[in-house]
């Protein structure tokens, strides 16, 4: 997808905010604990490489991504720090990871068996992190017997270098500790079964760290906090307070491309879901669901000049319409998403409006929107 550079629409990313968030988390870490910046999914839509370089300068020691390709993108950008792929990479691609010095997550014993032959044949050594499924129900070891057998297999094959062991929490962002505590218990149990000695044992995402649930560990996988977003699953009004200041980095801006007055009986948009009952001023904004600005935003208020204005009619693929209080000139700035967390159009409030989480909205912003970086 080509970015629309000849269109007044862009995602602004404030790298000073990214830097500040990482610095604040660095101060919050235990002595000797490392920060791995999670930059999967193009840095949660913010741009993986600029975010990674900023995080590195602010003290990050390594990176987590979801796909091998995302790790390769960082290596291609001359990032030499450790990179861990959190998802399951096809075993056939293990040699590619080994050559690039990218660490992979081991989901089970079958994966090790599948990856070993090609690595041995090519005399490659792959850095691995043993994934532990302590209750997320996603990937990793959960049975004692298989976990022990996997370690025996690793000890018998020198193509593997155990760099880490980790688990992932399903509810670190909740006020209810019960399931979290069960996961901690399970992880501690699996840790007792270690025969190999991982360099880094880790379990914390942003929520576990900034809500101070962390148990002692070697590194924090800091994701959503980099971007200045509170990981709390609750609606904005009931957010769990973060123990470090978080400054959102992203805003989404555009301009009015057309302004007109419509009259009683005139409709707006597909399906004519809005019909004027009297004269109304309607503005057009050149962003739509193909940019990740989904149809559920109908009715949401974006900031046009100094006014919060409701989106009227259905959001189209590439455009939407707003109801303006007065005639405003074409070119008037439109702020769809504000980087002020208290603004009615913050990413969190926008997510609440469409019934999702800010993680999802940020990731949805498509490549058609250019990312513009403020240093
Ligand atoms: C995405 C992810 C993280 C980061 O989570 P945040 O909530 O963004 O901090 C950490 N660990 C794993 C395994 C993940 O998949």
Name the descriptors:
Lyase, Ornithine Decarboxylase, Chain A, domain 1, 2 domains, 8-stranded parallel beta barrel, 11 helices, 19 strands, binds pyridoxal-5'-phosphate
Taken from the alpha-carbon principal axes, the silhouette is elongated
CATH topology of the largest domain: TIM Barrel
Report mean pLDDT, rounded to a whole number: 97
Strand content: 15-25%
Q: What is the number of beta strands?
A: 19
Major sheet, described briefly?
Answer: 9 strands, mixed
- Our Rg estimate from Cα atoms comes to 24 Å
Structural class: alpha/beta
Strand order of the largest sheet: 11-14-17-16-15-18-10-1-19
Number of helices: 11
User: What separation lies between the terminal Cα atoms?
Assistant: 26 Å
CATH architectural arrangement of the largest domain = Alpha-Beta Barrel
CATH H-level name of the largest domain... which superfamily? Alanine racemase
Helix content: 25-40%
Q: Which parts are unreliable, with pLDDT below 50 for 5 consecutive residues or more?
A: none
The sequence of SSEs as H and E is EHEHHEHEHEHEHEHEHEEEEEEEEEEHHE
Bound molecules: pyridoxal-5'-phosphate
The CATH class designation of the largest domain is Alpha Beta
Number of domains: 2
3D architecture notes:
The relative contact order is 0.15. The strands form 3 sheets. A 9-stranded mixed β-sheet has the order 11-14-17-16-15-18-10-1-19. Strands 2-3-4-5-6-7-8-9 form an 8-stranded parallel beta barrel, surrounded by 6 helices. A two-stranded antiparallel sheet has the order 12-13. The protein contains 11 helices and 19 strands. Helix content is 28%, strand content 24%. The protein is of the alpha/beta class. The longest helix is centred in the middle third of the chain and has 15 residues, at 178-192. It has 2 domains: 15-227, TIM Barrel (Alpha-Beta Barrel); 250-338, Lyase, Ornithine Decarboxylase, Chain A, domain 1, CATH 2.40.37.10. It has helices at residues 15-28, 40-44, 48-57, 68-76, 94-100, 109-121, 144-155, 178-192, 206-210, 347-354, 358-364; strands at residues 9-14, 34-38, 62-65, 83-85, 103-106, 126-132, 160-167, 200-204, 219-222, 250-255, 258-262, 267-268, 274-275, 280-285, 301-304, 307-312, 320-324, 333-337, 371-374. It is elongated and about 80 Å long. Helix 1 crosses helix 3 and helix 10 crosses helix 11 (358-364). The structure holds pyridoxal-5'-phosphate. Pyridoxal-5'-phosphate (PLP) binds at residues 38, 40, 86, 168, 205-207, 221-224, 231.
């Amino acid at each position: 997808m080509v970015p629309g550079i000849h269109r007044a629409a862009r995602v602004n990313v404030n790298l000073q905010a990214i830097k500040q968030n990482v610095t604040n988390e660095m101060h919050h870490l235990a002595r000797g604990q490392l920060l791995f910046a999670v930059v999967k999914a193009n840095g949660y839509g913010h741009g993986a490489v600029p975010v990674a370089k900023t995080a590195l300068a602010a003290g990050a020691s390594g990176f987590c991504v979801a796909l091998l390709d995302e790790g390769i993108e960082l290596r291609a950008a001359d990032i030499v720090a450790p990179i861990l792929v959190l998802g399951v990479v096809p075993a056939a691609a293990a040699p590619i990871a080994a050559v690039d010095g990218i660490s992979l997550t081991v989901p089970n014993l079958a994966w090790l068996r599948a990856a070993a032959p090609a690595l041995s044949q090519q005399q490659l050594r792959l850095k691995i992190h043993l994934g532990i499924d302590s209750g997320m129900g996603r990937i990793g070891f959960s049975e004692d017997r298989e976990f022990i057998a996997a370690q025996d297999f690793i000890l018998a094959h020198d193509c593997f270098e155990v760099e880490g062991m980790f688990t992932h929490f399903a509810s670190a962002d909740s006020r209810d500790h019960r399931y979290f505590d069960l996961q901690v218990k399970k992880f501690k149990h699996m840790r007792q079964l270690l025969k190999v000695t991982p360099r880094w044992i880790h379990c914390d995402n942003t929520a576990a760290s900034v809500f101070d649930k962390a148990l002692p560990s070697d590194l924090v996988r800091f994701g959503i906090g980099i971007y200045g977003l509170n990981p709390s699953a609750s609606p904005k009004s009931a957010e769990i307070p973060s123990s470090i200041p978080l400054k959102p980095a992203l805003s989404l801006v555009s301009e009015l491309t057309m302004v007109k007055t419509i009259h009683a009986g005139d409709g707006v948009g597909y399906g004519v879901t809005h019909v004027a009952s009297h004269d109304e001023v309607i503005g057009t904004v050149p962003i739509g669901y193909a940019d990740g600005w989904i149809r559920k935003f109908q009715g949401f208020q974006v900031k046009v000049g100094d006014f919060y204005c409701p989106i009227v009619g259905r959001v189209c693929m590439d455009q939407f319409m707003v109801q303006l209080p007065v005639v405003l000139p074409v070119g008037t700035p439109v702020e769809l998403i504000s980087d002020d967390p208290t603004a009615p159009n913050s990413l969190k409030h926008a997510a609440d409006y469409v019934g999702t989480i800010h993680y999802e909205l940020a990731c949805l912003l498509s490549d058609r929107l250019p990312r513009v970086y403020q240093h």
